[in-house]
Every structure is written in C-alpha cells, then in structure tokens.
C-alpha cells in the first residue's frame, strides 16, 4: 500500500496508528480495549473480534445487541473466509397473514419485524472454527462491563436519548416496557459521563459463553424469547431459533486497479459497492477534487443501488446471478448511461448483457472484518424481560409485494444493509475495512476504496475525507466541509445538493492495513464517532 503516512489533505485531529503485535479498531474506546485485552491474554484476531463484538452489545447498545445479526470476513492462513450470521423470517409469518391483519407494509417496530437473531451463533461459530480461546473467555470483558457498568460517551448518549424519544412516541407501550426498564431505568436515559450497568446482559452473556450459544437457541433463553414474542402476538418461535445455523460462504469480489475488493454475497448489500466500483474502474481518477470525478461516482452508485434494490435478497431467490451483475460486459452497458448531467437511476437487466463495525489484526497475520447490528439503532424497541436481549427489526426490509425479489417468505433472509469489507493484492491481505450506517454503507465502501487506491490516502485520511451520500432521485447529501465549489458545480449538473450537518448520516468507519514487507499494521478510526484504536 503506497501512501504518505503524514499527508492529511483534509482537516483532521487524528493521525494513523501503527503497531506490530495486534490492533483493534472500532467505534467505542472501551470495546477496542476489550479486544486488545483478549489479544494480550493469548487470543488471536478472531478471539479479539468476538470479544469486541460482544462488548459492543453492552458498550454501544444504540447500534447493536445480543438479539441482532452479524457478518464476518476472516483472513487466516492465506485465505479469506466469509460468515453469514443473519437470521431468517419466522416459519409462521407470511404476506397473507400480515395483509389479513391490516398491514400494507412491514412495520418498523414491535414484534412483527423480529427475525431470528444470528449474532450469538456467529460468535460461537467463529470461536469454534478459528478461535484460540473459549467463547466464555472471549466474552469475559463484555460480562465485566455489564456487571460493573461504564460511563456514557457523548455520541452514545445523544443516540440513546434520540432512541428513547422515538420508542416513547412510536413504540408498543406494553411490549416495550422492558426496553425502558433496561435502558431508561428510573424513567430517564443515562447522560454523558453517567454510569450505566445491566446485570441482565451479564447473566445472558454468561449463559451464551458457557453453552457456546446453545442456550440462546435451544435452552432457557430460547424459551424466554419464544414466550415473550407469543405473548405480544409475534411470529418468532423457539422452533425457529433451534433451526438456525450460521452459514460459511465464499466471499465475492471485483478487481479494482490491481487490488481485489471483497464483500459477503447476498443477502447483504456489499454487491452494490462492488457493482459501483466495477463501473468506476472504467475511468481515470487522477485528481480527488474533480467535479467530473465526483459526478461519475454519484451516477455509478445510483445505478448500482437501482440494481441492488431490484435484485438483492437471499441469493437463491434473486433471479439473476452475482456473476451476471458483476460482469465486465454488464458494467460496460451500465457505464454508457453515465452522461454529463444527473439522472434518476433505473435498474437494468444483466441477463441481457443502526450498526457497529470493527476490525482486528494480530501479529500472526490473522485479520477480521466484522459487523453486527440490530438495525435502526436499538432495533425493534423490544427487550426480552430479564435478559437484556434487545431484539432486531430486520424484517422491516421485507416487501409485502409478492412479485418483488425481496418479498416476505417464511424462513427467508431479507435484504441486509450490514456489510464487512476486505482488501487484498495478489495473494496478500491488505486488510479489513468497513463503514457502518444503513444504506450509506456501500457508498462509504466505495469512497474508502477510492481514497485508498486512487488517491493514495493513509487510513485516517481516507476516513476523514468529507463524504457524500445519495438518498433518492437526484438528492445528494454532503458534509459541511465538502468543497463548496465542487458542490456548486455538481448542482449545475442537475444534482440536488443538500448540506447535512449531522455526522451520523455519513457512516462510521474503521480501517486496518498490513504492510506485506514487515507486517506492520496501520489503522484509522472514525472521527465522526467516539471510536479509537487499541494496539500493541
């Protein structure tokens, strides 16, 4: 990787971090320390990823929880492995049942959009296959923080208060009571610097560790989840939980200027990032602050999203193949649609031509790109009483249109927003990267890859660079420090440019790159979040 380690073309208060023996990068400083603690105890990068992920369910519950999903890309012994730990819809749910109950679209909150949580099984599977320590050992830091408590950081407190307000106004008051008892004890949310603890989280995590997650899917925890959902008219059952198994998958990639960019295959939206890069590799990007360069990036991501929104669902249900969507021939046809002015994107036909992200690395060459989420912050607004398990609402992404690729079906996994990324060159790992944040994620992946490969920015500069986000039609959000003259020129090309002051709208990323010559690790962490890098 060729970059000037001190070059910072954009305002930044951080510089990249270098280390040799190990590194953990994530959005919460205490969670990074939890992963580093496990590395120093003799664990590898996989153990550290599990420890960090579990700790984040306690330390950043505004973005993920025990009742969420996870995906991972694991580099070990010279090979990249993919893990899909996203859960399916319940077997008893159906479009017909919801329409009969008066629903015209999938609800956002409550028991109906709750799908099988995959994260605990994902932790156990990673530990079983690649970990050096036991799952119980990896979960020790998370248990300690849940029992002893920790003080809230500023960004965390802000998102916590926002979620409480949403659930108070829009949530299910009866089913959501345990959420408020857990996350707003005494009738108020914790403030910045205030201690928060959850012994229920600790007890649940201990059960998960001791049983290698079996208790969550087949034991007392599964029984509690089943009873709670049934009591409030939901569909998830203990039979759904018992039937779930994470899936090892072959990662998908595109070649981009001598590098291979890797993502998890559908049902994740990583395919969108790859499709956009496949379009963009047909152009030269010699200058970062170029109106034409930004215009082409925006048009490419719109075209990629149009295809993604039409086709992405569980891979066996897509109707087109990943190979067709990522073929050079299809990219060439789609590239012809990128003209001089902004346009509203439409899907093509290739057959004719609320989330936490973490990265870990150890001194032995193992590296992990890991992401997990409850979706839309805390998720469904529900906590299983007495467990600390905040349940996800991933089912909200299902369509109730039976003709749509992502139509709701029993036992089907929905279109998923969370995506880990990984970069390789030749047969060598460059490293893990990710940008969490709903539908911003593939857009963040494209920008991070281009900042790294096209513009030779170091990891911290690649993350600090002002971001853009396409939302719909011709609407583009940009950060306040996005170059004003570029924004004005893009507006003259027909883009609806809107300045967004909320940094959380542009995702939160982490990067760790490895120097193949000496094994030195170089990391960057998100300046838009409370994050930090722990290293030794």
From TrEMBL:
Top-level taxonomic group: Bacteria
SUPFAM superfamilies membership: N-terminal nucleophile aminohydrolases (Ntn hydrolases) (SSF56235)
EC number in record: 2.3.2.2, 3.4.19.13
Report the GO molecular function annotations: glutathione hydrolase activity; leukotriene C4 gamma-glutamyl transferase activity
Alphabetized, the UniProt keywords read: Acyltransferase, Hydrolase, Transferase
Q: Which Pfam family, just one, is annotated for this protein? A: G_glu_transpept
InterPro entries, alphabetically?
GGT-like_enzyme, GGT_lsub, GGT_ssub_C, Ntn_hydrolases_N
Q: What is this protein called?
A: Gamma-glutamyltranspeptidase/glutathione hydrolase
This protein's species is Paenibacillus amylolyticus
**Source taxonomy:** Bacteria, Bacillati, Bacillota, Bacilli, Bacillales
